[in-house]
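request received
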Amino acid sequence: MPNDCNHMNRPQRRRAGLVAVLVLAAAFAASAQDDLDALQLQAAPAAAAAAAESNLHAYVELAAGRVERRGGLSSQDGRRASLDLRYAAPLGAGWRFGLSDRLDDVHPVATGMRATTNSLREAWLGWRDAAGTWSADLGRINWRRGPAYGYNPTDYFRSGGLRAVTTLDPVTLRETRMGTGMLRVANLWAGGGATLALAPKLADGPSQGASAVDLGATNMNDRALIGVNQRLSPSVSAEGSLLLQRGTSATFGASLTALLTDSIVAYGEWSSGKSRRIDDIVLATGAPARRVQQAAVGLTWTLPTALALTLEAEYNGAGVDRAGWNAVLAGGPAAYQAYQAQIQPGQDIGSRRAWLLYATQKGLGLKQLDLTAFVRVNAVDHSRLAWAELRYHWPRFDAALQWNLASGGGSTEFGVMPYRQIVQLVGVAYF
Amino acid sequence: MPDSSFPILSEALPVRRRLVILPMALLGLGGHFGVRAAPDAQALLSASDAIRNPTQPFRVTVTLTEFAKGVQVDATTLVSYARTLESGGQFATITRFVRPPRDAGKVMLKNGSDLWFYDPGTKAAVRISPQQRLLGQASNGDVMTVNFARDYRAAIAAEETIQDGERRKRQAVKLQLAASSDDATYAAIELWLDAASHAPIKARFFADSGRLLKTAYYRRYRMELGVERPTETVIIDGIEPQSVTLVGFGEYAARNIPVSWFQRDYLPRFDAE
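response:
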């Protein structure tokens, strides 16, 4: 590229130089003024952190929206009210107590479903030594495991945890699930730790009562889980798991997370255990359990604009393939409901293979405006479930607009969902 | 410590695997003075670190107040615990969010390249990248303690009179810092220290493209843990100068939390004192 300055005569160059100096001087003056303006700002006096901290965290969430239904049915108005409580407090001498509960009231509800559901998520008593090296917890505990966003094969205590499905966002949905009754003992060392959990059978099956503690949903079998976590390098961590369940052979699991670059995190988790295929359970074929592989691998990439994109590949060896799905559909509405009942409470994927693209953008144009969105693709029949939320924050209140679209052919997983589209407004008040 | 320098931009990234020694001319830094390496520049930097950050393990309450065009738009309160895990090593930091209520109880951990975020709602401890932003405008680096001397090579660039955070004229030594480790957050930093006490007065932080990311003023010096330390940092966005964050530090206390706490598995147990 030619240097235009070379084509200027001396007076022109002098004028250009003068302009450059004036521009620089103006920029410097503006910058100095910006600094002066900033230095005049004063922060409001802050309360002491200790005084501001509360053992109780609570919020009330109200939602109202419109549901566009399939099958020639007219659109329907929907509404929901939720009360969410979390309490944890030290009792002294290393002892702690925790309680977590959620109440959901959803309208309208499908036939046979509850409008009002209470989920006692956690109730536990814990102890740890002064150094924090040893700890023990007893009660209903929500021990969440696995690094994946949408599907966690190594999250062995996820089964039966969801009593009410109030969002399709897999990340938010985890806030509503119940823990499992267990005794958990952990030992930590620098860079790693080991945990043993003993979760006994406490009931034969889930309870339908609106306010039931519902230990049968989460403790239907005797289980023991050992997990060992180790930091392998400054940017790589791994975890191994062994799950023992009464009446079946051992399940093995492993997960790994790694920081690949300043902006990319990779993760993966895998589990191998005996299980019946979902279509065999739904259709009561009597086919025996067999060893199946389940896995999820993904990358989260953060762009310079702070947009974080996660792409996740999911595989469920017990999920339905094309033939299995066709068999479920042939079983009619009852089989479809049974299929949903199999996958929803444990946040499983029903198809053999799936993809998830998950995106978050903090400060979308405005500092207090966040965008969260995802698309889940059934990789067997290529149907899609999309969800997006715009959320604006005030100090103690959030307002959100949520949109959800289930799309696909007439014989696909998301193409036969009872609704096609949902739009709703959500308000959340924090206490 | 909460890095009193407080990176506010998403580009405030470690320069891991892309270490570049920026030509000073590219940044337009030190051109008038001619950067000269000085044997005591690194010692000056260490001295200023010891003023910004206590040398012993400690806790501190950090308050971030964000302004846009002069109007307060957000406020966040955190409690931060920091210590070095090895002799001469960088700080590891665990930070718990106290306010606003929607974020209360969330925990962030930095131990070298390890960055983890724990949400008591989802019970999930998630590995995050230095660029990933989870809590509004505050970047992850905003709540981490950093000793510059470990990650940057210092040279004395000038001695000059500048305006400090209280809008007074101060005689200062200007240091030019260049990233020298994978964990360095910025490619380059200009740092002005008080000529006599070596207390930090002002800093300018640059991306590896040479772009100004932010300007910081260290002010409101007060005796904390035996040393006169800055208790407020004014952060001015390099792109949007009307976007300003005041970072206050208070309630300092010596607190020697165990090394084994600085890992993912401990985060669910990390609760209020």
